[in-house]
């Protein structure tokens, strides 16, 4: 009898404990989803090479870790607050309707508190582990993305992503200042590269989800302009981005390795941009996601080359 009773209790308690553990893991996953981890990954890819360039080699590992953690918290804060403010239009778009706030797995109030907590923690961490300038830049990045892009520009102008994209350029400034404590021309050029890269990158995505943005009433350029106009603007910004990427060579005293690598990557990017425009002009299926995915690869490889070049300079 006793053995049977113990066995019965065990079979009741263990599934209950497993259920609580599963629910807790699901809640954690939902809060992580609010931070948009895939976007954070790309931001971090640009941070470390900027730090390497500032240090002319490998920076202090502890400083790198502190900057990456602080940067992740800052980006996570901005993204969570973006989800909070955009929850009404996210529910209307196929691409975003499965976000936690639209599934009622996280309450809007909790998302707001979570986003603000991440932001305060990020700024405090930068202040304590790097310097005041990096902390102020992190705070500015969060405020710009949430207040200027999400709250002000996104629903009002087709140039929303052009100016709003400045927030995504801040990690290179933060990474540089974390190492040096000041700004200089090389991080400004890196900022310009990402700033000019953002419209082709995001407009390609928005071309694919044009109906989504139109349904939600968001004046993203592909939702309010012809495909040919958007493709032309993509080509224009691609050339400007390429010019900025090549300007880094003399400004930061890069080696020939960077000049050659940046030129090859630029040629591939321009080819993809012109191919998109040609398909649009022929009224063929545009396939903008090809450019979108390549743009991510391009930026990642370009910044890897920046990091490699920093090590070559050290030699």
Folded structure, characterized:
- This protein has 315 residues and is mostly helical.
- It is built from 14 helices and no strands.
- Helix 2 packs antiparallel against helix 3.
- It is globular, with a radius of gyration of 22 Å.
How are the SSEs ordered, and which strands pair?
Layout (H helix, E strand, L loop, with lengths): L1 H33 L2 H19 L5 H25 L1 H4 L17 H22 L2 H22 L6 H5 L5 H11 L4 H24 L1 H7 L4 H4 L2 H25 L4 H26 L6 H27 L1
Keywords:
315 residues, mainly alpha, Farnesyl Diphosphate Synthase, 14 helices, globular
Radius of gyration: 22 Å
CATH topology: the name is Farnesyl Diphosphate Synthase
- Secondary-structure content class: mainly alpha
**Total of domains:** 1
Number of helices: 14
Share of residues in helices: over 70%
Silhouette: globular
How many individual β-strands? Answer: 0
Can you tell me the CATH class?
A: Mainly Alpha
The residue-averaged pLDDT reads 92
Please mark out the parts with pLDDT under 50 across 5 or more consecutive residues, or reply none.
none
Sheet with the most strands, sense and barrel status: none
Strand content: under 5%
Order of secondary-structure elements? HHHHHHHHHHHHHH
Span between N and C termini? Answer: 77 Å
Give a quick precis of the structure:
The chain is mainly α and 315 residues long. 81% of the residues lie in helices and 0% in strands. The chain is globular.
């Amino acid at each position: 009898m006793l053995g049977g009773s113990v066995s019965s209790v065990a079979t009741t308690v263990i599934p209950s404990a497993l259920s609580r553990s599963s629910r807790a893991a699901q809640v954690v996953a939902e809060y992580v989803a609010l931070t948009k981890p895939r976007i954070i990954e790309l931001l971090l890819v640009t941070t470390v090479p900027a730090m390497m360039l500032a240090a002319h080699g490998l920076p202090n590992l502890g400083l790198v870790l502190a900057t990456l953690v602080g940067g992740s918290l800052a980006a996570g804060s901005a993204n969570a607050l973006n989800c909070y403010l955009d929850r009404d239009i996210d529910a209307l778009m196929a691409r975003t309707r499965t976000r936690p706030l639209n599934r009622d797995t996280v309450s809007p109030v909790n998302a707001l508190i979570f986003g603000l907590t991440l932001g305060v923690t990020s700024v405090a961490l930068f202040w304590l582990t790097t310097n005041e300038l990096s902390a102020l830049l992190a705070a500015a990045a969060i405020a710009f993305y949430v207040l200027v892009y999400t709250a002000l520009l996104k629903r009002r102008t087709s140039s929303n992503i052009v100016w709003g994209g400045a927030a995504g350029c801040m990690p290179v400034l933060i990474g540089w200042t974390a190492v040096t404590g000041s700004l200089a021309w090389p991080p400004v050029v890196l900022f310009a590269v990402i700033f000019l890269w953002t419209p082709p990158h995001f407009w390609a995505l928005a071309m694919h989800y044009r109906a989504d943005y139109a349904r939600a009433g968001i004046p993203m350029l592909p939702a309010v302009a012809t495909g040919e106009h958007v493709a032309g603007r993509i080509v224009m910004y691609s050339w400007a981005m390429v010019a900025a990427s090549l300007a880094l060579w003399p400004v930061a005293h890069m080696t020939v390795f960077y000049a050659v690598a940046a030129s090859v990557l630029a040629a591939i990017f321009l080819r993809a941009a012109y191919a998109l425009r040609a398909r649009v002009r022929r009224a063929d299926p545009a396939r903008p996601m090809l450019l979108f995915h390549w743009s991510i690869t391009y930026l990642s490889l370009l910044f890897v080359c920046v990091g490699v070049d920093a090590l070559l300079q050290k030699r």
